[in-house]
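Ticket #4471: structure export looks truncated?
Reporter: QA, pipeline team
Priority: medium

Steps to reproduce: submit the single chain below to the structure queue and open the exported record.
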Amino acid sequence: MNSPERQFNALTSDQDKSSNEIKKTTETVDELRPIIETETSISYLGVKLEKAKVRDSQFVPKTEQYEDFINDKEVALPLQRDIAVAFLNGEPLLIEGGTSLGKTTTIRKMAAELGYEVHYANLNGATDVEDLMGRYIPNPYKNKPEDPEYIFADGKVTSGLRQEEGKIKIIILDEFNSAAPNILIRLHEVLDALERGGDVILSEDASESISVNKEKTKIVALMNPVGKGYLGREPLDPAQLRRWVYKKMPPELPVSTFSYSTDALFKAGPESQHITTDMFLKSREDALTLEQLPEIPGMREVLEKYKEFHKAAKELVKSRKIAQDQSQPFTYDDRMEPRRVRDFVLRFYNGDINETFQQALRYYYANKLESDVDRKKLEELIRLVEYKPKVADSKRRGIEGEEKIAEGPIGQHIEVAIEKLGKENVLGPKEIEQVFGVKIEDVPDIPFSVEELERAKNLNQMLILRVDKTAEGEPMSIKAMSDMLDKKWQDEGKGRLLFSPECWRNLLCKDLLTQELPRTGWALVSKDVLPESLGRNYLEQTEVIIKTLKEEVFKDLDIPEEYAEAITEFKDKKAEIVKLMDEDPPEAAQELSQLKITQLTRQTSAEAIYDLAVYYDINNKRLLTDKLTWSVSLDPYGHLVYLGGFNSEGLSYDDWYPNGLAGHIGVCLSRRL
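Actual output as written to the record:
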């Protein structure tokens, strides 16, 4: 069975090496740019929309009108992402929120960038059906007796429905819940025709038939909340509301958004915001087909959980345990919601069915809720919609018999590791004795299978045995390694281990220098940083690690229990850590350092130094000469230590809060189990 591949670019980068490598570094960092524009498309937090081929029209807004538009991360950017999802899927979007949130302005700004026409209609009490669909008017072009006395003039909706080569049109229906009942009924017919890709019959024009296409026409309805100081608004009936993807926005601009936007207008605030990967949706270049859905691992299990979720979510709304204060009644429709979720998966499946399905539920279910409290209640249910693959036994044992080597840990068969990884990439007891003079009497089993070693080769990893004691039985500390190897390498003309040891002693925590030791046992360690981890903050690097585990290390294999638990813990704590990274970086660093996934997959400072030193001593090749790897170690000020730049003058280090990022700082994957 061939499962669809995740559509992400594996971008590599380097520091000041070549124009091509610099370009790749820029592309990696650009992945976190909220809006990326090319000649033919624009991506809004990862959701890519194609520009209209024909953009020269009086109905296309002018971009210069939106030069002061502020892309704040709380309102404007998520709104553009959600609008882009609706446009991409061809779904009618209904946005409810207070005044001055920028609902109309945001759509017009996007239209200006994309070259889409805007056909705007306000549905207040003075609007009638003919204003929307068209009417007969005296012929202003009548020059001859045979010319008709009257001609049909399109209304705002009709002009937006008519297809024209190369054009894409947006119909904006403002003050939607102020519309008269006959207008809403007429719009039912329009929405239904767009959904099925049929025709709209213009009874206003002797039953002319207009072919409509949701790829060419996008519809967005806007409305203020019922009541709450807004006069003349009536709740929509369920038959109307079910036709729309309903997004609930706050009643007023959040205080933090107002503050940021005001500062930005006066050029008095920060030039950038802390944009995190969880804000993004990555649309596929090509949507999956229906035939591919059953091939997605875990689809059947997730569907069963989804059905339970849908029923529970409906009950929460019905019992008013959520959305109690929302004046517009709604429910979760039994037919429309599953269809929308399916189409979302087809368009946004990223190789992780749990993540994709949960993103869909946040878009179609949580987006209907106004309060953070209600969203958190629903989020508790959303997290339960997941596929849990069978986990492997975490107690890995050595084996007896060559015929079983491929199935389980290879135990004492070091020659198998050498065959798979190459001699230079297996640093076992002989190599450790050669480097440090440590003779290992009881060599531990290698806890990795042949298949894991083959994958490690593809990941450019080495297999290394770590020890925590010197030949004299003293702690294998950073200071001990430095003292030992500097003397040895000086005699061999190899330079030194640490760049400016005095600097290390003065700036690095004394406990780290003298007490932090390598954790004993075998480890698979990447010889270079993971390419996608460059230009990302510490949390985002952790997401890259998890992605690598799922898609490369354990693809089509049972995930060991330790790793499954660690990934779940990260997901549970992620939102709080993201908040801490803005509000209390030292506390965020502490939380990130202590995560199970961090402890399982990152080197300590002592381990990074140990690994680099052993590989260099044995192979006379330096690793991480122009990149740095972010470790699990903390300095006394709550900074996370990163190391690299290993040249003839020695290994450098520095430290940073976890919300920092740079194009030459990544992470080396280091697995101990």
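Status: closed, not a bug. The export was complete when the record was re-opened. Leaving a note from the reviewer for reference: Confidence is low (pLDDT under 50) at residues 1-29, 393-405.
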